[in-house]
């Protein structure tokens, strides 16, 4: 009998479905916002789709996270009539599906013309670029998320106000919290093993009801899959427990924001040794790692929209709340945007701390990796490292990050490096989608504005 990890080919995918005598299989893929979409597919349809792909209405590339249609997209829209686009199933992504006994999940990618704007395909192209440069990329993502004793109905009945966190007060790393709620923690750990996004560390973070999960390292494309699936099914698990999990970058002005940090390292494909580790150099940093960090640092302001993709993302990027505000780097410095972590051949890496929990893992990884590869190609040099508190120091104007999503989208559109790495189709499509997101926000009147201006102005 095959296990999901045995499935690498179309033939094996068909065999495991037959062995389990499944009448239907679940197939899913991720849109531009990192939202997982999918359907149950009959066995015959699934087998046909494995061989030939299947059709999916391309409106899913032309609407936002609330299913509102973009009015500024070129790839699809009313002007194209929202035709079907080709999707291919990826046999090697086969997984047992938690909560559905004996059921399987397969992931898919957009194909054909839609591949140019597909988030997973974009990451795959950047990983292939690394391969052509002689590198194997390893990555691991870690997420902070808040848990609430709420349901989708209750949060709406409360208009998302006065929500009850799972636990009160600030108790980071609390043994009390993770023991009292051990059943939930074990559900999370068990789910991560069943669905092949194993968790390396899981603990209570600082804040009411906040948990942090560090997903185990893997090759970059697989790491993107694991992160995207973790975010999706963590929300599923929470709701099945009459709770809710949010990965918003910042849900309350009173608490720290929620990060989605990315750890990255390169290994030489032929020699099998770290491309970042050089024990004769300061901090064990090889010239390759130095160039990689330089690319990440210098392109961070241009690529910010891919890492901080919502209006809410920018509420997190403020001084003193564990989120970077400029494109800085330091060694073991958690006040900088890039944290170099000296170690051994196995552990030498860089942590891209700019990432927020609300980002699409595929796009955040593509931005963090692509900018580093660009730095290696161009032999870029980083600005001097930051020592001490980055928030209290003056930085070069070139390192300032955009302060709004609109500004970030504009910088991405204007970026020659982004267009060379990601292609014009993706840059135009994604930047337009972020401009739409900002315009949608501007159409609304906040409670803050009403309280501040209604009577007195």
Rg is 22 Å
> Structural class, please?
alpha+beta
* Terminal CA distance: 72 Å
**CATH secondary-structure class of the largest domain:** Alpha Beta
Q: What coarse outline follows from CA principal-axis ratios?
A: globular
CATH superfamily of the largest domain: Glutamine synthetase/guanido kinase, catalytic domain
Main sheet attributes: strand count, strand direction, barrel closure: 9 strands, mixed
Q: What is the CATH topology classification name of the largest domain? A: Creatine Kinase, Chain A, domain 2
Unreliable runs, pLDDT <50, ≥5 residues? none
Give a count of the beta strands, DSSP E runs of length 2 or more. Answer: 14
Which architecture of the largest domain per CATH?
2-Layer Sandwich
Strand content: 15-25%
What is the average of the pLDDT values?
Answer: 96
Order of helices and strands: HEEHEEEHEHHHEEEHEEHHEEEHHHHH
> Please, how many helices?
14
Question: How would you characterize the overall build of this protein?
Answer:
- There is one protein chain.
- This protein is α+β, with helices and mostly antiparallel strands.
- It is 36% helix and 19% strand.
- It folds into two domains: 4-114, Glutamine synthetase, N-terminal domain (Ubiquitin-like (UB roll), Roll); 126-448, Creatine Kinase, Chain A, domain 2 (2-Layer Sandwich).
- It contains 14 helices and 14 strands.
- Strands 6, 7, 8, 9, 10, 11, 12, 13 and 14 form a nine-stranded mixed beta sheet that branches.
- The protein is globular.
- The N and C termini lie far apart (72 Å).
- The model has no long low-confidence stretch (mean pLDDT 96).
- This is Gamma-glutamylputrescine synthetase PuuA.
- Pfam families: Gln-synt_C (PF00120).
């Amino acid at each position: 009998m095959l296990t999901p990890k045995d499935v690498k080919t179309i033939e094996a995918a068909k065999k495991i479905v037959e062995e389990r005598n499944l009448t239907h299989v679940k197939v899913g893929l991720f849109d531009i916002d990192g939202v997982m979409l999918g359907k149950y597919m009959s066995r015959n349809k699934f087998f046909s789709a494995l061989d030939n792909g299947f059709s999916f209405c391309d409106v899913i590339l032309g609407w936002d996270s609330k299913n509102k249609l973009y009015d500024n997209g070129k790839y699809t829209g009313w002007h194209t009539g929202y035709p079907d686009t080709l999707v291919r199933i990826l046999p090697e992504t086969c997984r047992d599906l938690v909560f559905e006994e004996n059921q399987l999940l397969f992931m898919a990618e957009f194909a054909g013309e839609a591949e140019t704007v597909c988030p997973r395909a974009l990451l795959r192209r950047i990983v292939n670029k690394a391969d052509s440069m002689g590198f194997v990329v390893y990555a691991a993502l870690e997420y902070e998320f808040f848990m609430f004793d709420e349901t989708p109905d209750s949060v709406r009945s409360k208009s998302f106000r006065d929500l009850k966190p799972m636990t009160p007060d600030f108790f980071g790393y609390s043994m009390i919290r993770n023991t009292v709620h051990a059943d939930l923690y074990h559900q999370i750990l068990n789910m991560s093993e069943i669905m092949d996004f194993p968790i390396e560390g899981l603990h209570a973070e600082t804040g009411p009801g906040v948990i942090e999960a560090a997903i185990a390292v893997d090759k970059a494309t697989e790491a993107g899959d694991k992160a995207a699936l973790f975010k999706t099914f963590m929300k599923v698990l929470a709701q099945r427990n009459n709770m809710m999990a949010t990965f918003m970058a910042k849900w309350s002005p009173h608490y720290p924001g929620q990060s989605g940090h990315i750890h990255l390292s390169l290994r030489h494909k032929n020699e099998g040794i770290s491309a970042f580790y050089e024990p004769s150099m300061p901090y064990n940093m090889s010239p390759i790692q130095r160039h990689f960090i330089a690319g990440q640092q210098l392109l961070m302001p241009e690529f910010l929209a891919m890492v901080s993709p919502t209006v809410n993302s920018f509420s997190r990027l403020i001084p003193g709340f564990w989120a970077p505000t400029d494109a800085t780097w330091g060694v073991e410095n958690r006040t900088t945007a890039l944290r170099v972590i000296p170690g051994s051949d196995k552990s030498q890496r860089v942590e891209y701390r700019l990432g927020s929990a609300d980002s699409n893992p595929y796009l955040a990884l593509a931005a963090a990796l692509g900018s580093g590869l660009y730095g290696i190609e161009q032999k870029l040099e980083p600005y001097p490292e930051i020592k001490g508190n980055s928030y209290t120091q003056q930085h070069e104007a070139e390192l300032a990050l955009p302060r709004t999503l609109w500004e970030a989208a504009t910088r991405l559109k204007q970026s020659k490096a982004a267009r060379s790495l990601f292609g014009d189709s993706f840059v135009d499509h994604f930047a337009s989608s972020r401009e739409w997101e900002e315009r949608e926000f501007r159409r609304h009147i906040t409670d803050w504005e009403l309280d501040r201006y209604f009577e007195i102005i």
